[in-house]
Amino acid sequence: QNIHLVARWLSSLEKKLEQHSEGSHRDFRVFVSAEPAPCPESHVIPQGILENSIKITSEAPTGMHANLHKALDNFSQDTLEMCSQEKEFRSILFALCYFHAVLAERRKFGPQGWNRSYPFSAGDLTISVSVLYNYLEASSKVPYDDLRYLVGEIMYGGHITDDWDRRLCKTYLEEFIKPEMLEGELCLAPGFPLPGNMDYDGYHQYIDDALPPESPHLYGLHPNAEIGFLTQRSEQLLRTVLELQPRDGSAGEGGAGTREETVQALLEEMLEKLTDEFNMAELMAKVEERTPYAVVALQECERMNVLTAEIRRSLVELELGLKGELTMTSDMESLQNSLFLDTVPESWVRRSYPSTASLGSWFADLLARINELEAWTRDFSLPSTLWLGGFFNPQSILTAVMQTTARKNKWPLDKMTLQCDVTKKSREDFASAPREGAYVHGLFMEGARWDAQVSSARL
Predict the structure, then answer these.
(1) What residues contact 453, with CB distance under 8 A and at least 6 apart?
(2) How far, in Å, CA of 408 to CA of 155, rounded?
(3) How many CB atoms lie within 10 A of CB 229?
(4) CA distance 373 to 387
């Protein structure tokens, strides 16, 4: 089981299977299991084993309906009958199943669901139910606080590393596991009250009959939360269709020729717009005093040079390959595919800033970042407003703000904290930088909107 954990041993397994295949019983079988690989580079199972195997894939459930049924499938009628406090045990067990389904399915909403992705599994749910059974058998009263703490802080909370995610998990448990659940007054979601005392098949039937249609309301989210998820799924579907287009010359008219012409035109346009690299020797000579702001500017220029040098090198190499002056390599083919599919090439991503944009938007964003750096390095005076999202390392400029303020006022740096105030002005309204701190722009709010009239966020 879990052979993905023993990647180095798999070659030995392949040899053993070859040895035992000769002269073995005709009903001899080997069963192996592995987690799905997150990326092609993680495929560790030897090709020989895969070719001689019957592959069975267990797809993770999608949607609240499937997840809730899947969570309940971990138990049976015997489970429901094993506790002496039958009513309390069944109610809390069903609430835990719903809680588990919510936590697992929230991942599809991206950052609005969880700040980080956590490996919640059926084992967390079954152990939580075992803890519930032990506590109810040992006590005549339901220890709600103890159960919420054990489930939220240990069983599921053991996976959680973000403070806000931990707070979210705790809030769900406070809503799902409380004394009102035994009085028939608890709704797990709008229009979905906690069921009463039923048998195992009755709970499954109740899910089919009473669970409302799939919507963010089932997770306590606003309907707008689904926009990002549906957009991402649509883009993924369309990109998969695009990747399935024929790539060879036998695909008929408009095949390889059109592909190469498209890549060639895009390649020439990018090389034409790409500016020269920053002359670091001249910039360092221009700096009179290496202030924290000047250091950040020089660091950003160095990182930008590394990125633009790789872009120019790879594009020139691909251009020569398309002309037949160089032999096409696998890296050049990967670059060609990325340009055609409007995705950022892997070699650029490794040297780039974090971004999820497509190639066209990413390259336009790159040119805008270069323009910002060019304006900043003319005299190295702090710009009137800083594009915080335009830095390779935004944390560096925030640290520079604190360092400059600490030196000016002779304050200890380790006692400094950042405070952010939202103004009612736009970027163009600022002619110069403030005497202390810095004006920043380019921040976005997700899951809410900013009300400029009262200077507060609204959900």
Answers:
(1) none
(2) 49
(3) 16
(4) 10
Identify the CATH number of the domain in which residue 423 sits.
1.20.1270.280
pLDDT at 248: 57
pLDDT score, position 213: 92
Interval 97-110: pLDDT, tens? 999 999 999 988 88
Query: Is 246 domain-assigned?
Result: no
Tokens 């997840």 sit on residue: 67
- DSSP string computed for 157-225: TTT---HHHHHHHHHHHHHHSSGGGGGT--EEETTEEPP-S--HHHHHHHHHHHPPPS-GGGGT--TTH
Q: What is the dihedral of CA 354, 360, 361, 363, to 10 degrees?
A: 60
Whether residue 77 is contained in a domain is answered as yes
* Residue corresponding to tokens 């640290």: 399
Q: Is residue 300 part of a domain?
A: yes
Same domain as 404, residue 267: yes
Residue 99, SS3 per DSSP = helix
Helix, strand, coil distribution of the chain in percent, nearest 5: 60, 5, 40
CB atoms under 10 Å from CB of 63, counted, come to 15
- 32 and 150 both lie in a single domain: no
Residue 115 falls in which region: left (phi positive, over 0), alpha (psi -120 to 50) or beta = alpha
Domain count, the chain: 3
Phi and psi torsions of 204, nearest 5° = -65, -40
Task: Print the domain residue range for 176.
Answer: 64-223
Give buried/exposed letters for 150-186 (b at 16+ CB in 10 A, else e).
bbbeebbbebbeeeebbebbbebbebbbbeebeeeeb
Decide which of 223, 243, 270 is a domain's last residue: 223
* Alpha helix ranges (H) inside 324-393: 330-341, 346-349, 359-376
Show the low-confidence residues of the chain (pLDDT under 50). Answer: 249-256
pLDDT in tens, 334-369: 898 889 888 899 999 999 988 888 899 999 999 999
